[in-house]
Design a protein that fits this description.
Blueprint: E1 6-10, H1 17-27, E2 31-33, E3 36-38, E4 52-54, H2 57-65, E5 69-75, E6 78-83, H3 84-92, E7 96-100, H4 103-112, E8 117-122, H5 126-136, H6 141-158, E9 163-166, H7 170-181, H8 193-207
Parallel strand pairs: 1-7, 1-8, 2-7, 3-4, 8-9
Antiparallel strand pairs: 3-6, 5-6
Helix pairs in contact: 6-8
Bound molecules: adenosine-5'-diphosphate and guanosine-5'-monophosphate.
C-alpha cells in the first residue's frame, strides 16, 4: 500500500466495519486507524483512547467551537468526530489513515480531501446483517431496531461512495480492500449496486 492515503470505511451498524478495519491494520504496519472522539458511553470492554476518546458533551462542544474536527456528526443519538490534528500527525508519520466512520463523516472527508477513497461495506444479506447485530449482544432489541432503521438511510447514502464491497467471507473482504488501496479495482465502480437495491427492498419490507 502507498502511504499517505485517507481510506474511509462506512457501513450500517453491525455489518463489520470495526472487524474489517482491525484486521486490515493488523496486516499493514503502515496503516493507522483514526481514533474518534465520542460523547457516547463505553460499551463492554472498550477503553478510553483505544476504541474511542470518550468525552463529555461540553468537551465536544468546545472542540467544535475551536475547529478541532476534520469532520463530526450525530449518529444514533450521540456525537462522534475526527480530530484534525490526529490525522495530520499520522499522515506526517507516513501512515495511511483508515476511518471507521458514518456516511455523514465520509461525505465531509471527501469534501475536505477529494483524493480520499470512500468504501461502503454491504452485508451479503439482510438475514446475515441481523444475525451479526444480534450476535454482538451489545445492544438492546430496541437499539437493534433503531440501528436497522438508520441502516436503511445509510445504505441509500452508500450509493454515493467510490466503491461497494460485500463483507461476506472476511478474508475475501480484506483482499479486496487491499487491492483497492493499491489502486487495483477488479470489479469496478458499478459492482454490487443490484445487491444494494435488493438489501434496501428486503430491509424496508422487514421493518414495515
Ligand atoms: P460494525 O463495526 O460495522 O458495527 P462489527 O465489526 O462490530 O460491526 O461486527 C459485527 C459482528 O459481525 C461482530 O460479531 C463480528 O465479529 C461479526 N463479523 C464482522 N465481519 C464478519 C464477517 N465477514 N463474517 C462473519 N461475521 C462477521
Ligand atoms: P459505534 O457506537 O457502534 O461504535 O459507532 C456508531 C457509528 O458511528 C458507526 O457508524 C461508526 O462508523 C460511526 N463513527 C465512529 N466514529 C465516528 C466519527 O469520528 N465520525 C463519524 N461521522 N462517525 C463515526
Amino acid at each position: 500500500m502507498r502511504a499517505g492515503r485517507l481510506i474511509v470505511v462506512s457501513a450500517p451498524s453491525g455489518v463489520g466495519k470495526s472487524t474489517v478495519c482491525q484486521r486490515l491494520r493488523d496486516r499493514h504496519a503502515e496503516l493507522a486507524i483514526s481514533v474518534s472522539f465520542t460523547t457516547r458511553c463505553p460499551r463492554g470492554r472498550e477503553r478510553d483512547g483505544v476504541e474511542y476518546h470518550f468525552v463529555e458533551e461540553a468537551t465536544f462542544d468546545r472542540m467544535i467551537a475551536a475547529g478541532a474536527f476534520l469532520e463530526w456528526a450525530d449518529v444514533h443519538g450521540a456525537r462522534y468526530g475526527t480530530a484534525r490534528e490526529d490525522v495530520e500527525r499520522l499522515l506526517a508519520d507516513g501512515k495511511d489513515v483508515l476511518f471507521d466512520i458514518d456516511v455523514q463523516g465520509g461525505r465531509q472527508i471527501k469534501s475536505a480531501r477529494p483524493d480520499a477513497l470512500l468504501v461502503f461495506l454491504l452485508p451479503p444479506s439482510v438475514e446475515e446483517w441481523v444475525r451479526r447485530l444480534r450476535g454482538r449482544a451489545t445492544e438492546t432489541p430496541d437499539e437493534i431496531e433503531r440501528r436497522l432503521r438508520a441502516g436503511v438511510q445509510e445504505l441509500e447514502a452508500g450509493r454515493r461512495y467510490d466503491r461497494l464491497v460485500v463483507n461476506g467471507d472476511l478474508d475475501s473482504t480484506i483482499e479486496e480492500l487491499e487491492d483497492l488501496c493499491c489502486g487495483e479495482d477488479r470489479s469496478g465502480p458499478a459492482a454490487h449496486t443490484a445487491l444494494l437495491d435488493g438489501l434496501l427492498f428486503e430491509a424496508r419490507r422487514m421493518l414495515s
